[in-house]
């Protein structure tokens, strides 16, 4: 045959080699010679192909390593040099991103928020850089916007992950954002943080965007694994008088992020959100020269924290001590003979900033920055058995781990869960009455019997501990059926006949009701209601009814009756649970459709109740 391309497949065992070769054969490759043992632990097989490898549905990844990108402008597409999508910035079919804009590229295919779409040089960050075109750009060739490093980080990592895996980037960056100054903006579960959001911190819209999109990436596939967070931020804090507050505010946000992701521990590197490394990148020489003292405080706060899973990556200079190139015209000049035009060709109106050395160049974002970030990821997370063997990490179905509502660090967490990955509901300890439950297509579908109210229950013998030690309920569900005003959907109930603990104040008469909530539609909106004998109250809205997935979180504060609801990642006002004389859910977490009359269909993708308890 007339060979056009060669490649090499490496594996740790004959079975691994067979699996990887299968993927290659589907793409049109053929073995070239026989397998060779290049080390006692590594087999190698050469392959060849006559034409071009097939790139189509067969080469789509089966699952993804998830990498979150967050911070401010130097974390995103602020490189001013001409994008090169036909060469240096060429996309790869195994590298995707979570969508944010309404089209994949300007004027391109339509997409929706949090869809999985191809990743390119200008990712879907909070700030949209796709319209800031280079004056020499040929938009018909896809040379739109500016250049970031996200695609290139992923390209550096591809050779080290299984052939059936891809990398899913989660872009959450916003230029000019800081912890100590900037507008807060707003957050919507349907569109994410608004473009004017410029303030990081626990509970801020940028944080809500970060945590919600990270969860969305993991919920796309139970095999997906959160590998790392790439964080580059600090410049705008250095220019504030309150810059010294930045390190503590960053640490608080990091702690909250890991706590909020604890329900996804099984899908995190190392089996815990606390083990996912935060790779914290440096800034340009301009900032250090201009704010030397502030630099030591802000960027120094990222250093020497490896024991906490925080890794600082220097970018100030290259291996020869030369300053890493920025958008300064002399550092990214035009090369007309090669058809390349750099930051030097940009003028006011199409520059990312008039202060050119404040941002790394396009070339730096294709080379030194992704090189060092990818190396840091591999050093921090790439020496696991999964990476060494070239296999997918083992995903264990039982979540758990850290939760922010415990009274001290000396806590353990007991979990009750309903997860498709763990098998049938009955095998997980759940019982259905007056209805049916079926595991299909990765979700639990609950069916209603005529003129009956279904209930799905799991025993809870320590419900009162939610008041003393705190905990969390997380449920992702979907309602189905035609919109009907005032119709009920999913209800969640739990109460106990144990006495109210000393030191906890509860109002009302009857037994302590930890949960008595139901969903209901009014005026086309899906509402969360607090069921109370004395009169129901509205706790919040999920948004317009549309058969979409909804996420409910209820965070119980230790030593009190206070509960904070989060609807699709948006925290609502805290409220007090009460004593009541309702009769549903005694010592059992109970899911129900509330009424024997017509109600919405209910599907459950995941449910986890975490109850904190003092460590034994």
TrEMBL record:
Gene3D superfamilies: SGNH hydrolase (3.40.50.1110). This is 9-O-acetyl-N-acetylneuraminic acid deacetylase. Residues 66-263 form the Sialate O-acetylesterase domain. InterPro entries: Carb_Esterase_6, DUF1737, DUF6645, SASA, SGNH_hydro_sf. It comes from Escherichia coli. Residues 325-357, 390-410 are annotated as: Disordered. Keywords: Hydrolase. One of its GO terms (molecular function) is hydrolase activity, acting on ester bonds. Coiled coil: none annotated. Residues 4-49 form the DUF1737 domain. The keyword Cell membrane does not apply. Residues 397-408 have a biased composition (Low complexity).
């Amino acid at each position: 045959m007339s060979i056009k391309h060669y490649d090499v497949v490496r594996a740790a065992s004959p079975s691994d080699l067979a699996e990887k070769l299968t993927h290659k054969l589907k793409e049109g490759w053929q073995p070239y010679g026989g397998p060779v043992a290049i080390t006692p632990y590594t087999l190698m097989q050469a392959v060849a192909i006559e034409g071009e490898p097939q790139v189509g549905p067969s080469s789509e990844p089966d699952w993804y390593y998830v990498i979150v990108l967050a911070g401010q402008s130097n974390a995103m597409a602020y490189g001013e040099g001409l994008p090169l999508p036909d060469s240096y910035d060429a996309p790869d079919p195994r590298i995707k991103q979570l969508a944010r804009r309404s089209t994949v590229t300007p004027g391109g295919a339509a997409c929706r928020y949090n869809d999985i779409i191809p990743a390119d040089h200008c990712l879907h960050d909070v700030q949209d850089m796709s319209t800031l075109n280079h004056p020499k750009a040929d938009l018909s060739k896809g040379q739109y916007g500016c250049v970031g490093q996200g695609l290139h980080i992923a390209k550096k990592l591809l050779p080290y992950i299984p052939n059936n895996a891809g990398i899913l980037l989660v872009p959450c960056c916003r230029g000019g954002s800081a912890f100590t100054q900037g507008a807060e903006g707003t957050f919507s579960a349907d569109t994410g943080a608004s473009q004017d959001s410029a303030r990081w911190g626990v509970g801020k819209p940028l944080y809500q965007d970060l945590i919600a999109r990270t969860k969305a990436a993991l919920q796309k596939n139970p095999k997906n694994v959160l590998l790392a967070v790439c964080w580059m931020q600090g410049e705008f804090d250095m220019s504030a008088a309150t810059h010294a507050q930045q390190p503590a505010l960053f640490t608080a946000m990091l702690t909250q992020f890991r706590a909020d992701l604890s329900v996804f521990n099984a899908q995190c590197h190392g089996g815990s959100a606390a083990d996912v490394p935060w790779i914290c990148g440096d800034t340009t020489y301009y900032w250090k020269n201009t704010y030397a003292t502030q630099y030591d405080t802000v960027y120094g706060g990222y250093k020497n924290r490896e024991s906490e899973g925080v890794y600082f990556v220097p970018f100030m200079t290259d291996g020869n001590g030369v300053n890493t190139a920025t958008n300064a015209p002399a550092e990214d000049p035009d090369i007309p003979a090669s058809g390349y035009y750099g930051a030097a060709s940009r003028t006011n109106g199409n520059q990312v900033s008039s202060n050119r050395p404040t941002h790394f160049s396009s070339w730096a974002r294709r080379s030194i920055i992704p090189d060092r970030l990818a190396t840091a990821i591999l050093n921090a997370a790439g020496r696991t058995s999964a990476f060494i063997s070239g296999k997918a990490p083992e995903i264990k179905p039982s979540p758990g781990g850290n939760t922010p509502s415990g009274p001290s660090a000396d806590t353990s967490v007991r979990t009750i869960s309903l997860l498709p990955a763990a098998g049938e509901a009955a095998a997980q300890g759940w019982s259905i009455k007056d209805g049916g439950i079926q595991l299909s297509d990765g979700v639990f579908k609950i069916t209603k019997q005529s003129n009956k109210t279904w209930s799905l229950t799991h025993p809870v013998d320590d419900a009162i501990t939610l008041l003393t030690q705190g905990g969390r309920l997380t449920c992702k569900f979907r309602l189905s059926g035609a919109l009907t005003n005032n119709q009920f959907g999913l209800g969640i109930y739990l109460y106990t006949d144990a006495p109210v603990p000393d030191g906890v104040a509860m109002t009302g008469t009857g037994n302590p009701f930890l949960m008595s909530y139901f969903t209901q539609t009014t005026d086309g909106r899906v509402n969360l209601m607090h069921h109370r004998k004395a009169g129901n109250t509205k706790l919040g809205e999920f948004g317009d009814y549309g058969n979409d997935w909804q996420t409910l979180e209820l965070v119980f504060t230790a030593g009190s009756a206070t509960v904070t609801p989060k609807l699709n990642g948006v925290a609502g006002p805290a409220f007090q649970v009460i004593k009541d004389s309702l009769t549903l859910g005694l010592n059992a977490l109970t899911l129900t459709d509330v009424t024997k009359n017509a109600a919405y269909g209910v599907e459950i993708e995941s449910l986890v109740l975490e109850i904190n308890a003092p460590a034994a």
